[in-house]
Specification:
By secondary structure, the protein is mostly beta strands. The chain is built from no helices and five strands. Strand 3 (20-25) and strand 4 (31-39) form a beta hairpin. The model has no long low-confidence stretch (mean pLDDT 96).
Length: 54
């Protein structure tokens, strides 16, 4: 699974590939998976979020 989350910075929605990139971990089988969100340019920074695969 490779969902693309909605990402906001100070209330403004960012655009995948233009403003940020994604990496995935443990996203093949059931359980908890991770998405690494890395900002580009003025949106620099990194955040990791989780999602569940049923």
């Amino acid at each position: 699974m490779t969902p693309i989350p909605a990402v906001y910075l100070e209330g403004v929605e960012l655009f995948f590939a233009k403003d940020f990139t994604l990496t995935y971990k443990n996203n093949v089988q059931r359980g908890v998976a991770e998405i690494g969100i890395t900002g580009k340019g003025n949106c620099a920074g990194r955040k990791t979020v989780t999602f569940h695969i049923a």
